[in-house]
Design brief:
Strand content: 5-15%
Number of helices: 13
Distance between the termini: 59 Å
Oligomer: single chain
Number of strands: 6
Radius of gyration: 20 Å
Length: 351
């Protein structure tokens, strides 16, 4: 395998072998956790939706690896990988998926409640582009508080057709907000190809030119490249307080949700297998590290096994956890109510 041109730049030349393996471990953990949750979903252990990002692991792990503690992240509904990459535990996520009180949102939200303020991860959102103005708000808060950080917003290519996406880009440009919008373009939105659902010239990210915002587009196949090009955008946000739109070409192996019965109708099984066999980002990164002498096949196998056991333990924790009680239905709605603050007396928590 030829060396990546990005492997020797400022974002990667100082990357230690342990740090490279850490990215690989993160990608494996995402893959193994999602595989386990798909199995438990098929067994009826959870209701609602299950949305997999399998095939897109390099984006979550790669972008997160160049983020700093002062940065904030928020994702769309394909958010399991982003939550894990942000540092959330498999146990809290599995329990949330299964509606148990040990979940990150106490079992009250399910798939779209992967949220942890201590990790600066502000959830995954089911409404297309619903997270985009939130990211602009986080960026505005960072700027007003003079914190050298950036907001990173992950969204799908279908979300870029929503009005609120364009409103947010307009505000980001007007106020010079330190935000990076990362379009994970897997080509099919909910089930309609990009060519049929979006009018565009060259690429979706180029729309940013209409708002005088810098943009970039590249594939997800090289973790070094992801780190470099996302790193540049993050530096622009932190140092210059300027927004950027990144479009990363990727592919999802499953449907819009795991229950998507049409996922092999709007794209062929042959197309799916071609991507899995030739462009699997997890395999490509593993091969890269083996080629560099950073990782060997025995170590890689052990990492897979460890992640598999971690996911199994998380599923067991979730199944063994109790569900929320009926009495809990009125809690976790308004912070002032739960904390019995002064505003409760004045009714301010209503508006």
């Amino acid at each position: 395998m030829s060396a990546s041109v990005y492997g020797k730049d400022e974002f990667n030349c100082g990357l230690s072998g342990a740090e490279k393996i850490a990215i690989f471990i993160q990608m494996v953990r995402i893959r193994r956790f999602e595989q386990r949750m798909i199995l438990d979903f098929s067994r009826g252990e959870m209701g609602g939706f299950l949305v997999s990002s399998m095939g897109q692991e390099s984006i979550a792990a790669g972008v997160r690896s160049v983020m700093i503690p002062a940065d904030h992240g928020v994702s769309g509904w394909r958010g399991m990988g982003h939550a894990l990459a942000a540092g959330m535990s498999m146990e809290s996520m599995a329990a949330e998926l299964m509606g148990r009180s040990g979940g990150c949102s106490k079992g009250k939200g399910g798939m779209f409640s992967f949220f942890d303020s201590s990790k600066h991860h502000w959830g995954c959102h089911a409404t297309a582009a619903g997270q985009v103005p939130l990211a602009a708000g986080f960026a505005f808060a960072l700027k007003m508080r003079e914190i050298r950080g950036a907001a990173v917003c992950f969204l799908g290519e279908g979300a870029v057709n929503q009005g609120v996406y364009h409103e947010s880009l307009n505000l980001a440009a007007l106020f010079d907000l330190p935000v990076v919008f990362v379009i994970e373009n897997n080509g099919y939105s909910m089930g309609t190809s990009q060519q049929r659902s979006s009018a565009f010239k060259d690429c979706l990210a180029k729309r940013a030119e209409g708002y005088d915002i810098e943009w970039d587009r590249f594939p997800d196949s090289d973790v070094y490249e992801i780190r470099t090009r996302a790193g540049r955008a993050l530096q622009r946000a932190r140092n210059e307080s300027k927004p950027t739109v990144l479009e990363i070409e990727t592919y999802r192996y499953h449907g819009a949700t795991i229950a998507d019965a049409s996922s092999k109708k709007y794209r062929t099984p042959e197309e799916i297998m071609l991507w899995r066999n030739t462009r699997d980002t997890l395999t490509l990164w593993e091969e890269r590290l083996v080629h560099e002498g950073v990782l060997d096949e025995r170590q890689a196998k052990g990492i897979h096994e460890q992640a598999k056991h971690e996911a199994l333990a998380a599923a067991k924790f979730a199944i063994d956890s109790p569900p929320p009680m009926i009495a809990d239905i009125g809690t976790d709605v308004y912070a002032e109510v739960d904390e019995k603050g002064l505003d409760q007396l004045l009714g301010r928590y209503f508006f």
